[in-house]
Design brief:
Blueprint lengths: L1 E6 L3 E6 L8 E5 L3 E3 L6 H8 L3 H8 L10 H10 L7 H14 L1 E2 L5 E3 L7 E2 L5 E6 L4 E6 L10 E2 L9 H12 L11 H23 L10 H22 L4 H16 L3 H19 L4 H18 L1
Parallel strand pairs: 7-10
Antiparallel strand pairs: 1-2, 3-9, 4-6, 5-6, 8-9
């Protein structure tokens, strides 16, 4: 299903070896190294030394962030390698590789998944990654249909509708690269930026309008209606940008709940079911995230029938 090859300006990338349908689980990757908040950095080194040699070459070829390849990691490596000086260079490298390629899988635990780490970033990704606790693996699902030979991308950002300059700054700071995805450069970028800026102006206007007065003085019905309109604008922007996944699914289900409070039963039902489908596409039915969404939607649909 996948091939790995060089990408100009990115190093290696993961590509579809055949067409991939929306909702397909592309990868289910298990962690090679994990680090909990209470673990010392040396835990990275100890786990690294126990990795089978067959997996080491691929692991050591992962990217490093040269801006973080400094004195601190050298000192850590020297300290951890004091009993085996000949391992020091590799030790130094693995600490940096872990820092630049790990994912937060919850409760402050960081983990490195060697195959997932090959997947490059896009601000308009065609796939999404999530840690599935039920199978103890980090999964990648196609959030839209992916064409043969198209690069598979995920978003490294916590929020997908950020405007361009903050996005670029965050990616440069944390991952040491300048994003050149369609939302950041090329013909589509200016249209994308204006769309996102328009949404941010609308959000700021909404916040200002409802923060000037005491909460007790705000008409609840009017507030709910404006919240609903603003939320729909966000969903429309996601749709226009081609962004799907858990973030959008969760928001859609929340907006469905809002619609039900406003008596918009048909719209609430449509939003809830669409949100649940997006969640299934992004995480799979065996994920606890999907199970939680399914229960929430079931409760909402039951209320709408009454």
């Amino acid at each position: 299903m996948l091939t790995v090859r060089a990408v100009a300006g990115k190093g290696l990338g993961v590509f579809a070896a055949k067409p991939i349908s929306r909702g397909t689980r592309i990868l289910a990757d298990r962690a090679l190294i994990t680090l909990s908040p209470s673990d010392p950095t040396g835990s990275i080194v100890h786990q690294y030394r126990s990795i089978p040699s067959a997996k080491l070459k691929s692991l050591l070829s992962l990217s490093i962030n040269t801006t973080k390849f400094g004195v601190l990691s050298w000192l850590e490596a020297l300290w951890q390698s004091r009993s085996a000086p000949h391992l020091q260079p590799a030790t130094h490298g693995i600490i940096n590789i872990f820092r630049n390629n790990n994912f937060d899988i919850g409760n402050g635990v960081q983990a490195l998944f060697p195959n997932v780490a090959r997947i490059n970033h896009s601000c308009v990704p065609n796939a999404q990654g999530n840690f599935n606790t039920n199978i103890d693996a980090f999964t990648i699902h196609a959030t839209r249909d992916i064409e043969h030979d198209e690069e598979i991308t995920i978003s490294y950002l916590p929020e997908n509708l950020t405007v361009r300059d903050p996005r670029l700054a965050m990616l440069a700071e944390k991952y040491n690269f300048l994003c050149a995805c369609p939302a950041c450069s090329g013909e589509r970028a200016d249209v994308s930026e204006e769309r996102r800026m328009a949404l941010h102006r609308q959000l700021m206007s909404f916040n200002e309008a409802h923060s000037k007065h005491d909460a007790d003085l705000i008409d609840e019905g009017e507030f709910l209606e404006k919240s609903f309109e603003t939320s729909l604008a966000m969903l429309e922007t996601y749709e226009a940008e081609g962004i799907r996944g858990r973030e959008v699914a969760t928001m859609m289900i929340n907006v469905a709940t809002l619609a039900s409070k406003l008596g918009k039963s048909q719209q609430a039902r449509q939003l809830a079911l669409k949100g649940l489908q997006l969640d299934e596409d992004a995480v799979g039915k065996d994920s606890e995230f999907y199970e939680n969404s399914r229960k929430e939607v079931e409760v909402l649909l039951l209320k709408l029938r009454k």
